[in-house]
Design goal:
Number of strands: 14
Helix content: 55-70%
Shape: elongated
Radius of gyration: 33 Å
Largest sheet: 6 strands, mixed, barrel
Number of helices: 13
Strand content: 15-25%
Order of helices and strands: HHEEEEHEEHEHEHEEEHEEHEHHHHH
Length: 409
């Protein structure tokens, strides 16, 4: 019966006899495992950040953009025409059964002033429904109301970036700010939301009632026109139905004929975000695969050194066989040496991978997530590489002829 403890001791003693060579042999495994850990951490961090951004965008959302018209044979792109109005938004909410809520958007940029502080930011005219559609919460104050929208109340809600640049640590609720010299009372502050998947700072925004934006801030060539309508479907299953209902309703309202291009575009935001998430997943898989290749290269280095070791220790193998060592004893000894080399390299590689991941997160500002699964995967794969690439040298050693091995010089 094979004495596993004795075999491990012999393997360790053999590796200690050539410390420098053993250390250099494990270097390939160390680099390979560290690369796998770092790449998985970067990929998981990117996926987590995207998931957080998707959560801030809301769920089951459609957006309707104006434009995409054909005038005199000339086709205009999305957003190039003012073809959507607040009335369109209200009609969608009333007549589309698969739609839960609707919010029109009118956006622009403006200089916002408080005391001796000023900040250039995005100003969005909308309705209270927008905060429900995007699943956004308030850290202080409240939302403006439908009555505020009807009465064109000069009230506003601030994002965190605007608060930091105008008020610092002070609470802005109840304070008066000026947007294009129009005074607005701050009634609420939104919680921090971070960037969109396209890199836009969602906190660098001031929200005002859409009627105020139309009449006092930006003006519109067409009364009641808006730049976008955001729609929340009742469920994920209702999204295709809601998309179809919105298309049919707007074609009817805008008198778009069967052979005419619509003067609006409906986009399923959930599909766009799912595509982005799939892209990140594929990128993570690609990075992990590339890192695994370096691990395989490290395994080839182990096999090479083990073959050299078998050649150098041929006489030792012959002596062991002569005193009673079985084929499996010899094979297990060399397999154990290969496995110890790869596992030691795996442990050191995990430590190096964690250090690299932390460094990337600190220096580049990228989020990284080191998961126990990633560590177990890299460690397990390094062990598999040790066994796989150590088998042939072990097999070669165990099949030596004892008499020829004793005569080997």
């Amino acid at each position: 019966m094979v004495n596993l403890g004795s075999t491990i001791k012999i393997a360790v003693r053999s590796l200690k006899a050539n410390k420098v060579r053993s250390a250099l042999t494990t270097l390939g495994i160390i680099i390979g495992v560290a690369a796998v850990i770092a790449m998985l951490a970067v990929g998981s961090g990117a996926s987590l950040q995207l998931s957080n951004q998707i959560a801030t965008m809301g769920s089951n959302i459609l957006i309707v953009l104006p434009g995409a018209t054909t005038v005199g044979g000339i086709r205009a792109g999305t957003g190039s025409q003012s073809s959507l109005t607040v009335d369109d938004a209200e009609a969608i909410k009333k007549e589309c059964s698969a739609v839960m809520d609707v919010a029109p958007f009118l956006t622009g940029s403006a200089q916002v002033v408080y005391g001796n502080q000023n900040w250039s930011t995005a100003v969005v005219g909308t309705t209270p429904s927008m905060f429900f559609i995007r699943d956004w919460n308030f850290t202080s104050g409240r939302s403006f109301t439908e009555q505020d929208v009807k009465n064109m109340a000069k009230v506003c809600i601030l994002g965190q970036t605007v608060v930091e640049n105008l008020f610092g640590e002070a609470d802005p609720v109840g304070k008066i700010i000026r947007i294009r010299n129009v005074p607005f009372t701050v009634v609420g502050v939104l919680e921090k939301k971070g960037q969109t998947p396209t890199g836009q700072d969602q906190d660098d925004t001031v929200f005002v009632p859409v009627t105020v934006a139309q009449r006092m801030l930006f003006g519109t060539s067409i009364p009641g026109s808006v730049k976008m309508i955001m729609i929340k479907a009742k469920s994920a299953e209702d999204l295709p139905v809601a998309e179809q209902q919105v298309n049919e309703l707007l074609k009817q309202r805008h008198r778009i004929g069967p052979k005419q291009d619509p003067d609006f575009t409906v986009r399923n935001l959930t599909k766009i975000l799912e595509t982005a998430r799939e892209s990140v997943r594929v990128m993570s898989l690609l990075l992990g695969t590339i890192a695994s290749i370096s691990l395989v290269v490290g395994g080839i280095g182990i096999m090479n050194i083990m073959l050299v070791s078998v050649t150098e220790r041929t006489k030792e193998i012959g002596i062991r066989m002569a005193v009673g060592a079985k084929t499996w004893d010899i094979r297990l000894q060399f397999l154990m040496e290969s496995l110890i080399l790869s596992l030691v390299g795996g442990v050191l590689g995990i430590i190096l991978g964690v250090i690299i991941s932390r460094s990337i997160s600190t220096m580049a500002g990228w989020p990284t997530v080191i998961s126990p699964f990633g560590i177990l995967l890299a460690f397990g794969f390094s062990g598999f590489v040790g066994i796989f690439f150590g088998f042939y040298p072990a097999y070669k050693a165990s099949m030596l002829n004892p008499i020829e091995a004793l005569r080997y010089e």
